[in-house]
Amino acid sequence: MGPATHEDWLMVVLLEVLVALGLVGLLVSYFFRGRREAERQDIIDRRVEAYMQTIRREGGNSELAQMSDLELRDLLLSGARNLRIQAERRWYILLGGGAAALLAAIAIGTQEGMRGFGIVLLIATVALYGLNEFLGRRMTEPLVSRGIDVERLRVE
Hints:
Blueprint: H1 6-31, H2 33-58, H3 62-65, H4 69-112, H5 114-145
Helix pairs in contact: 2-4, 4-5
């Protein structure tokens, strides 16, 4: 291997700058996380309050309509919190599955070529789609069974 060229040094410096910018971005995101969480909680509180008013006004679900305000608020807030936690968990599972699928596709691709790479990615995509649908239905199932409209509690 010969001496490093000007282009090699430029590439190393560019890579270091990108890593530094990424770390600064993560740090800034970490510092503003508390404010984002407070804003999200305010939105959840407003949505729960509005949904409670709708339940009281329409009276469609007798079980929910018979609950006291405190019981109904606790039920809806815990449901919204559980939805958020399970959505984050689902995101991490899918992200990890996607990374594992990509690594597996690369490993197979080195042995079998582009055809093997494509087949593994296709199989992984179908599997991850099925997993996403399963986890999505599983996280809304407890709320739907109680007659709660999940979309009224969801905060993106």
